[in-house]
Amino acid sequence: MKIQHQQLEQLTTAIFAAAGCQADEAARIGHYLTEANLVGHDSHGVIRVPFYIEWLRAGKVVANQQLSVLFENEVIAVVDGNYGFGQSLGEQATRLGIEKSAKHGVSVIALRNAGHLGRIGDWPLMAANANLASLHFVNTSGAGILVAPFGGIQRRLSADPIAAGIPVAGGEPILVDLSCCTIAEGKVRVALNKGGQVPEGCLIDSKGQPTTDPKVFYGTPPGSILSIANHKGYALGIMTELLAGALTSAGASNPANANRLGNGMLSIYLNPALFQAEPAFAAEVRRFIDWVRSSEKADPNGEILMPGEIELKTKAKRSRDGIELDAKTWQGLVDTAASLNVPVAAH
Q1: Which of 107, 121, 172, 334 would staple 177 via disulfide (CB 3.0–4.6 Å)?
Q2: Residue 75 lies in a domain
Q3: The pTM is what?
Q4: DSSP alpha helices (H): ranges in the chain?
């Protein structure tokens, strides 16, 4: 079925408001989850709603939390999210990084004990819209252990997303948002909900054999996700675990925390205006983009896109045509809404 994004955002917001989130937090969660669907990252969209509400009821995530500042100076802040909703805490942490970097040229924010931060690309996009470059490392300690180490067949690492953004004068930011593993767990769940398969080279079963069946991943014993580019992605995942987990004190992947999903995020913000004359940076960014695009195309009818452009194209299409939801994801929304006495319009 298809649903217009405004209706989907309104329904999602209403669900979280009914569950006890204050109006601004409910709206924030509704916005970011729907935005993930809009740009094509269904794995981080409204498919998460039933799980978020389940965690809220179980006390594994806490509504209406503000960051607790554990240490702060002009350019560094170490903050604790108190297991609040990641869509609130991610925005709060990013605003803090923007404020410090705007004044001092650089800032580093170490966030620990955040609920699921959602689509990590939201945070460098927010910084780029404030004319800042940024780099973000994220890990999950506990319930999000999903990935086998290179040479191993059992889960030991989290998905370990890395995201970065660069502002582009007069244009849309360059936005990178990727995991150190071959596929997001949410995309495996999307495939499961649709009754489909995942691409080859993404999953192994509990004995280390390749599989494309999402049911195997969630089996007993479970399968594992593989790293991107074999040992290279594995190396990036190790670094992300240690920067986002150990350095922030969130903890690197640890089975002792398996009863709760908590994200750690290390974010670095850079203000180009304090590194050089601002027009020079903007001009060099534009020159380089033009140079890359000037390559002869492999397909004469194809395009050479900057990172983030495919999401913009998807957003334009889905804003016009609606967001396609599989029956299981939609039913999960309907059932969650019903459990909170939130009315759902017929579709």
Answers
A1: 121
A2: yes
A3: 0.96
A4: 5-18, 23-38, 49-57, 86-104, 122-128, 185-194, 214-217, 231-240, 278-293, 309-321, 327-339
Tell me whether residue 299 is in a domain.
no
Residues contacting 250, CB < 8 A, separation 6+: 111, 112, 113, 114, 139, 141, 244, 262, 263, 264
State how far the Cα of 41 lies from the Cα of 47, in Å rounded to an integer. Answer: 10
Domain count, the chain: 2
Q: Which domain holds residue 172?
A: 65-181+229-294
Both 53 and 102 in a single domain? Answer: no
Residue at 206 is within a domain: no
Same domain? 120 vs 14: no
Residue 296 has pLDDT above 70, yes or no: yes
- The closest of 30, 47, 32 to 184, measured between CA atoms, is 47
Instruction: Answer whether residue 302 is part of any domain.
Output: no
Do 274 and 332 lie in one domain? The reply is no
pLDDT-derived band at 345 (thresholds 50, 70, 90) equals: confident
284 and 318, same domain (yes or no) = no
For 53-86, what is each residue's pLDDT tens digit? 999 999 999 999 999 999 999 999 999 999 999 9
DSSP assignment of 142-197 equals ETT--BPPTT--S--B---EEEEEE--TTSPPEEEEEESBSS-HHHHHHHHHHT--
Q: How far apart are CA 324 and CA 39, in angstroms?
A: 12
Phi-psi region of 88 (alpha: psi -120 to 50; beta: other; left: phi over 0): alpha
102 and 35, same structural domain?
no
229 residue type, one letter: A
CA 59 vs CA 66, 69, 98, 139: distances in Å: 16, 22, 31, 21
